[in-house]
């Protein structure tokens, strides 16, 4: 243990030289890098939303807001959830937060005791693991694979249940895999959750971004699930609002007051300017979401076609804006592959290990560059793959 780590709380489990930081540092020293790394849309927040934020600032939206969030915004969130087939929430059962990620830590700290188990999909969005660790709980990884297109099934959940199981995290569509759990499977999983008295955190932040005929079944709307589900979402992805830092969670009336109190202790309230912008996003024209979805869809097709040509298999991306590809045939492991692709081809993508990939076979590519840059990334990738194959 070094001098520095001995001064940290034992709950802090540092990973050696965090991969994202290392990749970012390498990328910063290179010219013309094509960034398919972070899940941050290259598209700007739609103009009418920015305008609402500007107007709100001009009109004095510079103060703390209601601890749960601006009432009009919570009403708009409730209406929006219901409009897309979700549960009918009352505004007092919704808490606005500085991003969905913040919400994960609030929920974990409010609900998990040391020793409790929280099941998370693996690969899956990694901060859930960190939130569980901070709460002193045990993370139980539900390992998924290409066989189920990286979707969690009811059987998998059942196989991981112990007397200490308390929470199940479902992320639909999932990050990093971009896969959507079929509605019928979500319903089966819900039955297991009821049988074993689990709380479900249903992360539906990408639910407006699905492709083809794939749709997301909101968990809280299923029979008997409202009282045991916390729906987590936010404005970052569907409205390209990552930098505004605004998200929310919604849950049953018996849990929300305590969760709201913890959120208040952490955040006091979410930035007022962002709340006004979010209100404009949810109550204004929705064609901007469809326009962005169509842009990601085209990028997805181009990237997938290129990967097929390169002989690189991938999970069928059905939602979100990621492609999860299997680079094991290169024979060097996904982590080294990413590093070489970055240094030799100036293309940034992340190894699946960041998201709990237990094989070091997969990489995540974000669809956050225009089609021309994605084509250029494929050309560069081919050159690096050819070099590796020739070694
Ligand atoms: N949930 C998932 C699955 C994500 O991928 C992300 C961000 O990438 C978040 C939640 C958090 O988003 P934000 O904190 O920007 O709302």
TrEMBL record:
Does this entry carry the keyword Cytoplasm? no
Cofactor(s) needed by this chain: pyridoxal 5'-phosphate
The biological process GO terms on file are:
amino acid metabolic process
Per the database record, which ranges form the Aminotransferase class I/classII large domain? Answer: 32-380
Q: Which UniProt keywords apply?
A: Aminotransferase, Pyridoxal phosphate, Transferase
Q: Does the keyword Hydrolase apply?
A: no
Q: Which Pfam families match?
A: Aminotran_1_2 (PF00155)
Name the reaction it catalyses.
L-aspartate + 2-oxoglutarate = oxaloacetate + L-glutamate
**InterPro entries recorded:** Aminotransferase_I/II_large, AspAT/PAT-like, NHTrfase_class1_PyrdxlP-BS, PyrdxlP-dep_Trfase, PyrdxlP-dep_Trfase_major, PyrdxlP-dep_Trfase_small
**EC number per UniProt:** 2.6.1.-
Gene3D superfamilies from the UniProt entry: Aspartate Aminotransferase, domain 1 (3.90.1150.10), Type I PLP-dependent aspartate aminotransferase-like (Major domain) (3.40.640.10)
**Gene Ontology molecular function: any one:** pyridoxal phosphate binding
**What is the similarity comment for this entry?**
Belongs to the class-I pyridoxal-phosphate-dependent aminotransferase family.
Binding partners and assembly:
Homodimer.
Name of the protein this chain belongs to: Aminotransferase
Q: Which organism is it from?
A: Pseudotabrizicola algicola
């Amino acid at each position: 243990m070094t001098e520095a780590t001995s001064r940290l709380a034992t709950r802090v489990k540092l990973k050696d030289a965090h991969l994202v930081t290392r990749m970012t540092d390498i990328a910063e020293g290179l010219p013309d890098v094509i960034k398919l790394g972070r899940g941050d849309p290259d598209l700007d927040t739609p103009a009418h939303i920015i305008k609402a934020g500007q107007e709100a600032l001009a009109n004095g939206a510079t103060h703390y807001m209601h601890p749960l969030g601006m009432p009009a915004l919570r009403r708009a969130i409730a209406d929006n959830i219901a409009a897309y087939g979700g549960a009918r929430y009352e505004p007092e059962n919704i808490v606005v937060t500085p991003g969905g990620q913040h919400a994960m830590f609030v929920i974990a700290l409010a609900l998990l005791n040391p020793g409790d188990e929280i099941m998370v999909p693996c690969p899956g969005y990694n901060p859930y693991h960190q939130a569980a660790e901070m709460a002193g709980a045990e993370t139980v990884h539900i390992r998924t694979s290409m066989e189920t297109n990286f979707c969690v099934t009811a059987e998998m959940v059942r196989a991981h249940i112990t007397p200490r199981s308390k929470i199940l995290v479902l992320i639909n569509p999932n990050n990093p895999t971009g896969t959507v759990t079929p509605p019928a499977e979500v319903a089966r999983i819900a039955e297991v959750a009821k049988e074993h008295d689990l709380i479900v955190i249903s992360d539906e932040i990408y639910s407006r971004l699905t492709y083809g005929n794939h749709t997301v079944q909101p968990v809280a709307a299923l029979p008997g699930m409202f009282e045991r589900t916390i729906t987590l979402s936010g404005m970052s992805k569907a409205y390209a609002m990552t930098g505004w830092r605004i998200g929310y969670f919604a849950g049953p009336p018996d849990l929300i007051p305590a969760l709201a109190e913890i959120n208040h202790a952490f955040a006091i309230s979410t930035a007022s300017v962002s709340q006004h912008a979010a209100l404009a996003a949810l109550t204004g024209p929705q064609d901007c979401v469809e326009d962005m979805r169509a842009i990601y869809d085209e990028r997805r097709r181009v990237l997938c076609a290129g990967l097929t040509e390169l002989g690189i298999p991938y999970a069928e991306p059905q939602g979100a804006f990621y492609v999860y590809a299997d680079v094991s045939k290169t024979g060097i492991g996904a982590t080294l592959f990413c590093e070489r692709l970055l240094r030799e081809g100036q293309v940034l993508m992340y190894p699946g290990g960041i998201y709990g990939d237990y094989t070091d076979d997969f990489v995540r590519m974000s669809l956050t560059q225009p089609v021309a840059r994605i084509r250029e990334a494929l050309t560069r990738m081919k050159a690096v793959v050819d070099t590796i194959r020739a070694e």
